[in-house]
Write a structure and sequence with these properties.
It is a single chain. With 262 residues, the chain is α/β, with parallel strands linked by helices. It has one domain: P-loop containing nucleotide triphosphate hydrolases (Rossmann fold), CATH 3.40.50. It has nine helices and ten strands. The protein has a six-stranded mixed beta sheet, with helices on both faces. α3 runs parallel beside α5, α4 crosses α5 and α6 packs across α8. The two termini are 21 Å apart. It binds adenosine-5'-diphosphate and magnesium ion. The site of magnesium ion has 3 residues, from α1.
């Protein structure tokens, strides 16, 4: 594969969906949960995804991460036509190019926090042996839980577990980070802190797509995709643009992800 940092689709987008349809075949008949979705997300964008429960938000993200496949249409991410990759290729591609963050963290319960963060580097053979551990510790420092490195996930609070999951998502320095209701299980203060980490990532140049029910958070994105019954109902520019990035950059010097990950 090519150098990921340079990769965009031929139209300059990080994510391109063309007429994506997803139909589930269920006992009760066919259920079409994504209907002709066409959209582009550009490098460095912070995009919120909102919509009622069942409107297709998770399914949409799963198309982009390759966790699930479209029934019809095309999905291109970072220049890669991911709908045409085999399962094996997809797993490796995802490991390197996309950091995925879930509502319930999905940390492996029998591994320590540190081991959870090292795992994606092992899987994708990124970085060399000892560097992996150093990098994992460094990432845990960035999300402020280095002191929890040797604990098991169950010993951490929800907010700490989500920080660990963010560190894990960053393990292979992916250009794209995708999060499905990442603050849905956190109190509002912790949720705001986690969201601030996302804003830092965008400043660093990563592309972020975040499903959230929390309006106070979605308002902090630059752009909101509204899903309704599997359709892209509205695609709204929030007017935050690069102002958001600038404000955060000026205010926050506590953890400078941009520098630390360079
Ligand atoms: N594997 C599946 N098989 C059948 N139906 C599914 C499957 N996954 C999701 N669905 C259905 O697809 C619709 C959209 O689901 P989802 O994308 O999870 O919505 P959201 O994340 O917006 O709540 C829902 O009606 C859901 O029940
Ligand atoms: Mg969902």
């Amino acid at each position: 594969m090519r150098d990921k940092a340079m990769d965009t689709n031929s139209n300059g987008a990080m994510i391109s969906l063309y007429d994506v349809v997803k139909t589930y075949h269920t006992g009760a008949g066919d259920l079409t949960v994504l209907k002709d979705i066409t959209l582009q997300v550009y490098p460095g964008e912070l995009v919120g995804v909102v919509g009622p429960s069942g409107s297709g938000k998770s399914t949409l993200l799963n198309m982009i991460t390759g966790i699930d496949r479209p029934t019809d249409g095309e999905v291109r991410v970072g220049g890669q036509a991911i709908h045409s990759l085999s399962e094996n290729q997809l797993a490796r591609w995802r490991g390197r190019y996309v950091g995925v963050i879930f509502q319930f963290f999905q940390l492996l319960p029998t591994l320590t926090i540190l081991e959870n963060v090292i795992l994606p580097m092992d899987f994708c053979k990124m970085y060399r042996g000892r560097q992996r551990k150093e990098r994992a510790i460094h990432l845990l420092q960035l999300v402020d839980i280095a002191d929890q490195a040797d604990k098991l996930p169950s010993e951490l609070s929800g907010g700490q577990q989500q920080r660990a999951a963010i560190a894990r998502a960053l393990a292979n320095d992916p250009p794209l980070v995708v999060a499905d209701e990442p603050t849905g299980n956190l109190d509002t203060v912790t949720a705001a802190e986690v969201f601030a980490l996302f804003e830092e990532l965008v400043i660093q140049g990563k592309t972020l797509m975040v499903v959230t029910h929390d309006q106070s958070l979605s308002e902090r994105t630059e752009r909101i995709l509204h899903l309704l019954d599997g359709r892209l109902d509205r695609d709204v520019n929030n007017g935050n643009g690069k102002y958001l990035a600038k404000d955060v950059r000026e205010e926050s010097h506590e953890y400078d992800l941009a520098q630390s990950l360079a």
